[in-house]
Specification:
11 strands; 44% helix; globular; TIM Barrel
Length: 301
């Protein structure tokens, strides 16, 4: 899918109208922020997206830089179980139609809402899946550009990543693949070898390293960071136990969070450290992200 002349004009005018964006927060020389998936439990008004809730949550946490999780700005998924296959297919078709037909001005407005709050959308987390059409893949890049994101991050697989290559190269935009901990499937991003396979596809492919999942898969994020820092755009900071263990509050798992942060601080690599709250907290998303922010700032002080 191509951007129409009218949509292109809207983007240019929107960009010119935006106030100067605040610089991303830097602590100890390290740019910090949040993956907005951390705020997934926050309610949203019927018929609206989660932009306002995210901005308010980031303000409460004192954060200004984010990786925006795409489902939070898409129509809310149907609630409840027991959907029939046809109902699931209808919902999927409706989402596809929304992605392809929603004017890019809508995403520029979201960008402006963040900018008015002095916030930046560093990355758009748009996870290309097996059922994406070529048009949906292409539209993700247009959305990211309208949002002001510099990169796309994606939880995807190697098969789909190969399909993404020509679109990344056409748009000249980096796609950073995100890892999980499923090491049993070579098509999944979990092992250093799977990252290497993605990096070999295109110069526009990078790594969004989740240090918690990497630890759960029994790899060392510090060692990987030392060797491959030039290929890494941003980190997801979380804590997990080794051997496919659970997510835990920070400091209770096996992930070398403080060592990773110390390495970033010492080397001054341009790699952002983004909080991802995924453990079962007791105080609600905002309060838990506040705890994570305090941990991160203390480690970098």
């Amino acid at each position: 899918m191509t951007i129409t002349r009218r949509e292109f004009g809207t983007l240019i005018l929107g960009a010119l109208a935006l106030p100067a964006l605040a610089r991303g927060q830097t602590v100890g020389g390290v740019r910090i922020g949040v993956q907005t998936y951390s705020f997934r439990e926050l309610p949203r008004a019927p018929g609206s997206d989660a932009t306002t809730a995210i901005v308010d949550a980031m303000k409460a946490c004192g954060l200004t830089d984010c990786e925006l999780w795409s489902p939070q700005i898409e129509p809310a998924a149907p609630v409840g179980r027991g959907q029939s296959p046809s109902e699931r297919e209808q919902a999927r078709d409706a989402l596809r139609t929304w992605r392809l037909s929603t004017p890019l001005a809508h995403f520029a407005e979201i960008r402006q809402a963040f900018a008015k709050a002095g916030m930046t959308i560093y990355a758009f987390n748009y996870s290309f899946a097996n059922d994406f059409t070529d048009e949906e893949i292409d539209r993700g890049f247009a959305m990211a550009q309208a949002l002001g994101a510099g990169i796309i991050t994606a939880s995807t697989n190697l098969t789909v990543a190969r399909r993404v290559v020509p679109f990344a190269e056409r748009h000249r935009m980096n796609v950073a693949v995100h890892n999980h901990s499923n090491t049993s499937d070579p098509n999944e991003f979990a092992r250093p070898e799977s990252f290497a396979a993605a990096l070999a596809l295109s110069k526009y492919f990078k790594v969004n390293l989740d240090i918690g999942h990497f630890t759960a898969a029994n790899y060392d994020p510090v060692a990987y960071l030392r060797e491959h820092h030039s290929d890494i755009t941003n980190l997801h900071i979380k804590d997990r136990k080794r051997d496919q263990g659970d997510n835990t509050p920070w400091g209770a798992g096996d992930t070398k969070i403080t060592e990773v942060l110390a390495l970033l601080k010492r080397e001054r690599w341009p790699i952002r450290a983004f909080i991802e709250y995924e453990y079962r907290g007791e105080s609600g998303a905002v309060a838990e992200v506040q705890k994570c922010t305090a941990f991160l700032k203390m480690a970098l002080a």
